[in-house]
Each structure stands twice: as structure tokens, then as C-alpha cells.
Amino acid sequence: MDPAILGTPAPFDEPLQREVTRLSAETGLTLLQHGAESALVENLTRRLALGLGAPRAEVALLANAVVVTTLSEGHCITTVRRNEDRGINMHMVTEVQRAVLDAEAGRLDAAGYRERFAGIKPLRYPRWLTSIVIGLSCACFARLSGADWASCGVAFVAAGVAMAVRLTLVRLHFNPLVNFFVTAFVATSIAGQGAIQEIGGRPQVAMAACVLLLVPGYPLINSISDMVKGYINTGLARGMYAVLLSAAACAGILLAMNVWKVWAWL
């Protein structure tokens, strides 16, 4: 039985300190990899270490790494985990946050948290469903911008196919910049055919709407949030990453327009 349940805290010896340090670093890394803002990452990482018995914990976030240090009776242990982007997934962030809250409340010890944390898996929708929904959303944007139904249909097909291509490239582990470039080229090429074949009365709206799936809104929001809350380094890194993604998408759009000689919305 957990000693904390009996009213006596478990001794925070060196093996436990090492395990708590590792768990805290892995937790912070998972949160950072799946799109959590820096303030939340640091807060939950430190709270987990304290909740599992560490007398003191320090957390430092870099653009591509998480550093965690725990201190107990003059003895400190530091570990570093390199950050690799895994894509935005709020399901992962929410489930990790719930596990941390349970550990903080004393319902999980280090072993229990390790088991709970290992069982958290990303929730992902089927690629075909995601492609259809993204196509519908871009078609709705086109409709809101005054496009007729035929142009909305072009936007739906272009965005849906482009999203399918994007998800395929993600599965094949292509660089995100290459992914955005190819996706933008595919979307604009398909929508450009609507302009060439004179499908619908507002082909320029369809061409503009079909690439809205490439707007890096979440990185931009996180970038501003990080800088406002004092995490300048991570905020600038996320902001520059969003700029590079936008530049790659623009390059793909311009290439498609040059190839097909369609400049409908410029």
C-alpha cells in the first residue's frame, strides 16, 4: 500500500529522486511536443515533481529541449530531454494534465503515475474523415466569402485532397516545410483547374479558401502567448517556425500558379 495513504510520506531517497526527475522531464517533453504553451508545460512539470515528493524542482524550457532538476537534502539530479515535434494534439495535453492532478492529489505514486502515463496514447481520427471535414470547412469559408455552390465544390475537393496528401506526408515523416509546400501546390493546382475549366462563378474564392488548412494558427497563438508570459526564447522560436511554414505554403501556391498560369486571386 502507498505509504502516503497511511499518513506517512515515502522516503525521498536517491532512486526515487531519479525516477521523479525522469517522469517530470518526460511529462514536460510530451506536453511540449503536442502543442501546450510554455507556461503550462513548466507549471505542470514542476507540480508533478513536487506532488511525487520532491522538496524542490526547477524547470527550464528551450526551443528544442526540456531541462528538469530536482533537489533534495543538498543533492540535485538534472536531466535533459530533446524536443521533437509530434503535432498538435490536445487530447494528449488534457490526459497528461489529468494524470498530473491525480499525482498532485496523492492518488498516484511514482510507479502508479508511470503506468498511467505510459497508457496515454494520442487520439487520432481516420485520415479519410479528417480530409472530408477539412474539405467541408474550406468550402464553408468559400461560401461565407460569397462563392457559389460550384466554386464551393471546387474548394471542397481541392482542400480534401490536399489534406489527404498532407496526412500521407506526415505518416511518411517528411519535413513539415516540404509537407506544407507540396500540400499548397496540390490544393492550388486542383482549384486552378476549376478556374481553367470555368467551373463556378467565383474561382478566385475557391483558390483562396482551399489553402486555409495551411494557416499555422496554433503556433502563432502559442508564440504570442509565450512571449506575453515571459517565455521569449520559445515564443520567438515558435513564431519563426510559423513564419517558415507560411513561407513554404506561399512558395507552393506561387509554383502552382506559375505552372498552370492561373492568377485568379492575386
Tell me the series of helices and strands, N- to C-terminal: HHEEEHHHHHHHH
Shape: elongated
Number of helices: 10
Strands of the biggest beta sheet: in what spatial order? 1-2-3
Biggest sheet layout: 3 strands, antiparallel
How does the helix and strand content classify structurally? mainly alpha
Number of domains: 2
Number of strands: 3
Strand-residue proportion: 5-15%
Instruction: Report the C-alpha radius of gyration, rounded.
Output: 23 Å
What key attributes describe this structure?
single chain; 266 residues; mainly alpha; 2 domains; three-stranded antiparallel sheet; 10 helices; 63% helix; elongated; disordered N terminus
Descriptive account of the structure:
This protein is mainly α. It is built from 10 helices and 3 strands, in the order ααβββαααααααα. Helices cover 63% and strands 9% of the residues. A 3-stranded antiparallel beta sheet has the order 1-2-3, covered by helices on one side. Strand 1 and strand 2 (65-72) form a beta hairpin. 40% of the residues are buried.
Q: Brief overview, please?
A:
It contains 10 helices and 3 strands. With 266 residues, it is mainly alpha-helical.
Chain-wise SSE layout:
Elements: H1 14-33, H2 38-51, E1 56-62, E2 65-72, E3 75-82, H3 90-104, H4 110-118, H5 127-144, H6 149-171, H7 176-196, H8 203-209, H9 217-228, H10 232-260
Antiparallel strand pairs: 1-2, 2-3
